[in-house]
Amino acid sequence: MNINVRILTKSVSQQYAFKRIVTFSTKPTQQAAVAAVPQQQEVTGPSVRKPIVPAHYRFVYPEFLPDPKIEWRNAIREKLERLDMLDRRRQIELPEFYVGSILAVTSSDPHAAGKTSRFVGICIHRERCGLRARFILRNVIDHQGIEVVYELYDPTIQKVEVLRLEKRLDDSLFYLRDALPEFSTFDENMEAEPLEEGAPVPINDIKVVLRPRPWLERWERQNLLGVANIEQYIKDKHRKSAEKVQKPWEKFDLMKQYRATIPEEEQKEIFAEVHTELHTLELQRKRNKRKRTFVKPKHLA
Amino acid sequence: MLRTVLSDLARLRLNGFVCSVTQVREKGHLNRPRLRNPYWFMRKQRSQTDDQVTGENRSFIKEVIHDTYGTPALIKGVQTYEQKQLIKTNEVPVSTEPWTPAVRRCGLIARKIGQYPLWLKNGERIRTTLLQVVDNHVIKYTPPEEYKPTQRPNVHNLNRYGCILVGAESTNPAQLTKEYCGIFRDSGVMPTKNLARFIVSPQAALAPGTPLNVGHFRVGEFVDVRGKTVYHGFQGVVKRHGFKGMPASHGVTKTHRRPGNIGGGGEKGRVWPGTKLPGHMGNRWRITKGLRIWRINTKYNVMWVQGSAVPGSTNGLVYIYDTILPLRKPQVAPPMPTLYEQPEDDAPDDIWYEQVHNFKDESITYKPE
Amino acid sequence: MAQILLRNFTRAGNAALLTKGTSCSSITGTSAEPGSCQLHTTPACCEIRKLARLRVVDNSDLGKRAMAEGRPPRCIHVYNKRGVGLIGDKVLVAIKGQMKKGILVGLKQKQRIKQPQFDSNNLVLIDDNGSPLGTRIHVPIPTVLRTILKEKTLAKGADYTKVLAIASRYV
């Protein structure tokens, strides 16, 4: 059924088909995410009576979608996992963030002096689903690049703040390891830069400057958008070998896409189950935020 | 000439008839006890000939099934039937003998439904496997005197243990053979897809029809889990035994993933038994022992056990037993012979082991020294 | 010979060297431009084992001179049973023709969840009693070292907690 829909849409327009495909890893779609969200609403508006679940939920809460590998799926397990995730979300505010956003994570640390530690950094990667969801923060402190892996639902995490909510041009920013250090340096005492409510998440189209080879990975093969000077360092042999490993046909492989993603109908089911809870949590958070902003001037005065 | 031969034959026949002495040659070979499968090993699936059944008859069959076993229902996350008429044995039997560590209780049939992490109260992360107990009912109890297993146990164990037959996952009897359905006739339980035999002490006997659920085990106890490992087919030594293989280059030809030398020459010039060689990998029954139960969900009959090394694939069948490890046996009596009382309505679904962090609690913090 | 040296250098895989432009060019200067240097570029082995190059991060005179000259210390022994250095392990290094002991205070290797992973393999030089040669560590060190070094101090008799005292910052 789902494939049928996709094939039909494909025949209508290739681009359109891509935006309809819903991904777990958001590999091809994250670039198209912002563009897709308004269009999605247009599409679903007339056909479905009421779009109950906002279409952007799958980008805001990607970890609620299970692993698409069919051998590992089980409805009851996924349900229990979601219940646990919601329980945890009731205790702690886990905000919306993307790869490229700047986060500050406060976690309890038995080794630290004050028993808590705070780390500020840019999210360079986000992976896994369910309670295993995790992300990597990177920062350069005292000219020393440091990365920390955090699990989103780890109960030792006390607070996750988004200091700057934005996206980058790529799905993972591992190339920051090979970039000049100023591109991953962020001030630890950075103030949060709040975004207007309802505004789309901005895409930071900054292009980072890489250091000369040797690199940790062969970046020239990965079609990175956020790198400025990759051409400067590669030679013809690199270009040739990079061309050889390209798989331009994969974007036409609907079956591959289907296996790598959760079908749209199932996504709707999943989010319909958790939507009300997430929505009330969101509202509560907004209310708290308003309270906080209301209190602030009093303190200043 | 002919006459003598005939008379000889007649005499032979007569002799055989009169003496009736059986041949004693190769007696030892014939005397070995034949391995007989248990009586519930029989053809399960009926060959489907639906085209001969009219629609009316089909609905009639369905009606009959619903009349006898109840309508289809989703009970504790498992698609089954309301088997209300079965719960006749629900009253607690008057247990005469108390639990001792030597008592062997019944086990459960479960499905491995996946794995995910839990956290302890000290912030440590543990990996757990989720096992869902799927619609278990006792089918039959055979007392020790009548239980004749295929392989007779050691003499001192003879006739000490009975056998409980447990079924899991009720299914439409119209799809099963008549003989297979006959196994379930006396218990009154709906025919089930899966059967398992558990060797129990006579104190832990259960009446046929008793439903078993996850309350049979308690949080913090240890269990053994038996399952069939994932089948990998015929595999080479690199995958099967973790050999290193040989270099990719430096003049190596055609022996990149081969075992290399498999033994010496001379007097030991043969392949020694037990040599690691290519062969079938997986699809063996394996028991992981001593897994702690961290958490139990009574709503969906799910238990979280320690580790991710439970044999079998996700959604595969496993059997859960009380552990046999002597140091991990329970100190206090577990539910004997099983848990009969239903949980109260306002009781929480989840029962957490005391060391495990409940996701409903606040974040973990450490006290400054 | 030079080829072997170069290969050893990359195999030890210390990107910290490469962050320092001076040291990089001093080593690769023999070949050519940075883009066309003849280093082979297999992924670096991030483990601290024998002959791995380390980066001295304290302000000891010896360490500073070694790093400035582009001749970083090489691990010649790891004082544990595995032979692969983990965080807080003591190592023996060859630095400027001398043998010195040091403590690993930051690793490139994959770390546990919530423990920092560094872009270079950092080392603090100590003497035989466990007291550091320098007076300050100029990069952050992981908080887990506090626990690890305290435990090792009790076990070994040498006092490693002095390393913690000269740390400027924890992450």
TrEMBL record, chain A:
Domain of life of the source: Eukaryota
Annotated GO MF terms: structural constituent of ribosome
Chief localisation class: mitochondrion
One Gene Ontology cellular component: mitochondrial large ribosomal subunit
Coiled coil: none
Subcellular location as annotated: Mitochondrion
Lineage, top ranks: Eukaryota, Metazoa, Ecdysozoa, Arthropoda, Hexapoda
Family the UniProt entry places it in: Belongs to the bacterial ribosomal protein bL19 family.
Protein name: Large ribosomal subunit protein bL19m
Alphabetized Pfam families for the sequence: Ribosomal_L19
UniProtKB keywords: Mitochondrion, Ribonucleoprotein, Ribosomal protein, Transit peptide
Biological processes annotated in GO: translation
Gene3D superfamilies for the chain: 2.30.30.790
From TrEMBL, chain B:
GO cellular component: mitochondrial large ribosomal subunit
Keyword Ribosomal protein assigned: yes
Region of interest: Disordered: 245-271
GO biological process: translation
Keywords, alphabetical: Ribonucleoprotein, Ribosomal protein
Gene Ontology MF: a single term: structural constituent of ribosome
PANTHER family in the record: 50S RIBOSOMAL PROTEIN L3 (PTHR11229), LARGE RIBOSOMAL SUBUNIT PROTEIN UL3M (PTHR11229:SF8)
Family according to the record: Belongs to the universal ribosomal protein uL3 family.
Protein name: Large ribosomal subunit protein uL3m
UniProtKB/TrEMBL annotation, chain C:
Coiled coil: none
Family matches, as Gene3D superfamilies: Ribosomal protein L14
SUPFAM superfamilies: Ribosomal protein L14
Main location: mitochondrion
The keyword NADP appears for this protein: no
Pfam families hit by this protein: Ribosomal_L14
Keywords (A to Z) from UniProt: Mitochondrion, Ribonucleoprotein, Ribosomal protein, Transit peptide
A single cellular component GO annotation: ribosome
UniProt entry tagged with the keyword Transit peptide: yes
Compartments, record wording: Mitochondrion
Any GO molecular function: structural constituent of ribosome
Gene Ontology annotations of biological process type: translation
Family: Belongs to the universal ribosomal protein uL14 family.
Protein name: Large ribosomal subunit protein uL14m
